[in-house]
Amino acid sequence: MPSPFPGMDPYLEHPDFWQETHNRLIIAIADTIMPQIRPKYEVAIDKRIYEITDPNESNDESLLVGIPDVAIKHQSNIPDVPTRSVATVSVTLPTTVKVPAPEKIKQTYLEVREMATKQVVTAIEILSPVNKRSGEGRITYLKKRQSILGSLTHLVEIDLLRKGESMPILNNSIQSDYRVLVSPSNRRPFAELYAFNLRDSLPIFPLPLREEDVEPIVNLPEIFGGIYDRAGYDYRIDYNREPVPSLSEEDRVWATQILQ
Fold first, then answer.
1. Residues 6 or more apart from 256 whose CB is under 8 A from it?
2. Engineering a disulfide at 137: which of 106, 130, 179, 250 sits with its beta carbon 3.0 to 4.6 angstroms away?
């Protein structure tokens, strides 16, 4: 069954589903464009690894190591104080705390490479929460992004997450829930921004390659519909619960009507 929403399904932004959705989208996009660009190009699935050590970068407590409260268990081991002693003994009991523990976060992305030279022609990124919140993950991604924008490599950047800070563009007045940025190297500093909201359909856009090549089409609605069906999200998602992140009041009323 298809998603009840006309475009992006906000329930897939939940941490329980997003990593799977991200990986499925990466593979589905690669499978879709490969027949359109062979044999001149290849599509490589690559990954980068973030090591997060700052607990302030995430609300996910799995990034921290919990220390069990052992105060009660150990109280019986405290030596008895002789009753004849006139001194007052103060026993310090431990407090349960959490310490930062490094966690490696793996994020996959696509590179379209020219077969003859192995040169990266187009980079395709699907943003993750680590890219949209302050911290090492965002800094690392922004450095790579700026490097691509200063090169001859085309950039396609897909943002299907409402929460967090969007990637910088010079026209900051554009506001939207989601966006796809297509930045051909030969048009910079200009780029095409597909800005859309929860109630809109996902965009269909061309993938930039060499100037002499026919640009393949990335049909996000079709790709998204396919992974939604293959993943069985229609029966795995509990649509009776509120989505995470939560919706605005206006969108919540609209979504309730859609789901009914």
1. none
2. 130
